[in-house]
Amino acid sequence: MKKLLTLMVNGRPREDAVAENALLIDYLRDTLGLTGTKQGCDGGECGACTVLVEGEPRLACSTLAHSAEGRHIETIEGLSTAGNLSRLQRAFHEHLGAQCGFCTPGMIMAAEALLRRTPQPSRDEIRAALAGNLCRCTGYVKILDSVEAAARCGDVAEVAA
Amino acid sequence: MGALSEFRLMRATSAADAVRLRGEFPASRFIAGGTDLLPNMRRGLTGAEVLIDLGGVDEIRELRRDGDVLRIGAGVTLATLSADPTVVARLPALAQAALAVAGPTHRRAATLGGNLCLDTRCQYYNQSEDWRRGNDFCMKRSGDVCRVAPKSSRCYAAFSGDVAPALLALGAEVEVLGPQGLRRLPLADFYIDDGMAWLALGPDELLVAVMVPLVAGRTSAYEKIRVRGAIDFPLAGVAVALRRDGELIGELRVACTGVSSRPEFIAGLDELVGKPLDDAALATMERHLKRGIQPMETTLVSVPYRRRATPLLAKRLVRRLWEEARQGA
């Protein structure tokens, strides 16, 4: 049965009739068309569907849409502003942190939560924060390099905006 | 993975309200973090007509110290637990165990209560519906034979939570709320050695809190072996709590996970109290430990390996804590 879901997505208020058994990933991708959030393993094992709920990383494939009632959801689509890439998006582009790109939105959202919490993380802190995000292409070195680079150019205001 | 079956989602406003709803709707289940329940529902391993969301129940998210007892609400997330200053300083096994569960994103959603009530696992059970049908199912779901022990009348799925062994070693008690009110029991009595009915929890009871004693002079640690260090369930996990009196063992408590259908507190180690920690003591511990565990073919990793690795993990932890206790004294 559908129920009204009221929440914020990428800074905009939304009200949608959503099935009680809908997962957050299905709501984001199918109802809102925000297909940047990827469906990888679809069982909570790969991190590709990571989004931010109240600034905290969450697996959208293992979260009920209605559990986000009244919360603020952020997806990869919400990071760029006025056509400009966020510092993490730019760093992943410049440091070749994306290869096939499928894990990238999840990687960037998990890294985004880390940089807001810890603006200058150590390499080990980055590894720990991304431990649940699997990449099948690059072998992680360039991903870690990209997050380090984003932290170095750290304009916190830009990230928070 | 399949879609979620149809269900009604109800938001409990208090623990008592959650228990009332559970009584009102027999085909219901509680949901907290949902990191285990939702994938399991999508694999057809469990179903519910009503899910009772515990996300709005603030009273089970309290973590507070009452004198020499730390009271931890069942709704406290594993991320909060692993970073709490009292837990890190006084109950390191608990902090390490909470940190060893899955990946960082899971731990922000997953709760203490969810990990303690975690469904038992098996390579013949944690599979898609098609996979299990191709194998004619197993007795834990839809079938009538235990694929791990076909002649057995019981299911041998392994309890695979990381936090329970730490809390067993630390001597925790749990508080359970039912229609008749609160009851309190040792955590060891909360578990049953049966892969299909591993919790001594009534159908309309809710685990609300865990009480952990803060014992002076006690050190503790948790370690597990797993396929991928970043994320996996334990192939075997061991928690140790130790108190050193000079050159003698003052207290030694060991518990394991992943190697039985319940988290296993290793009985018989009291005989080592008052003795030095030498090779004979470690051999005695190994003997008790091997008697207490029963790894079965519930994982792709072989039984002999897990049977050998479990006492090795325990010995490594005991030696390390023994040295740390000497340096700390």
The largest contact between protein chains, plus residue counts on each side, is: A-B, 27 and 27 residues
In round numbers, the mean pLDDT of chain B is 96
CATH topology of the largest domain in chain B: Enolase-like, domain 1
What is the end-to-end distance of chain B? Answer: 53 Å
Across the major sheet of chain B, the strand order is 4-5-8-6-7
CATH architecture of the largest domain in chain A: Roll
Q: How many helices of chain B in DSSP terms?
A: 11
State the secondary-structure class of chain A.
alpha+beta
- Distance between the amino and carboxyl termini of chain A: 37 Å
Order of helices and strands of chain B: EHEHEEEHHHHHHHEEEEEEEHH
Protein architecture, described:
The complex is a heterodimer of chains A (161) and B (329). With 161 residues, chain A is an alpha+beta fold. In chain A, 34% of the residues lie in helices and 17% in strands. Chain A has helices spanning 24-31, 87-94, 104-117, 123-129, 141-152, 156-160, and strands at 2-9, 12-19, 50-53, 56-59, 72-74. In chain A, strands 2-1-5-3-4 form a five-stranded mixed sheet, with helices on both faces. In chain A, a hairpin with a 2-residue loop joins strand 3 and strand 4. Chain A is globular and about 45 Å long. Chain B is of the alpha+beta class. Chain B has eleven helices and twelve strands. Chain B has helices at residues 15-24, 37-42, 78-83, 85-90, 92-99, 104-109, 112-116, 129-134, 163-169, 279-292, 303-328; strands at residues 8-11, 28-31, 50-53, 63-66, 69-73, 173-178, 181-186, 206-213, 218-225, 236-245, 248-257, 264-265. The interface between A and B is medium-sized, with 27 and 27 residues.
List keywords for this structure.
heterodimer, A: 161 residues, alpha+beta, Ubiquitin-like (UB roll), DNA polymerase, domain 1, 2 domains, 6 helices, 5 strands, globular, B: 329 residues, Uridine Diphospho-n-acetylenolpyruvylglucosamine Reductase, domain 2, Enolase-like, domain 1, 5-stranded antiparallel beta sheet, 4-stranded antiparallel beta sheet, 11 helices, 12 strands, 22% strand
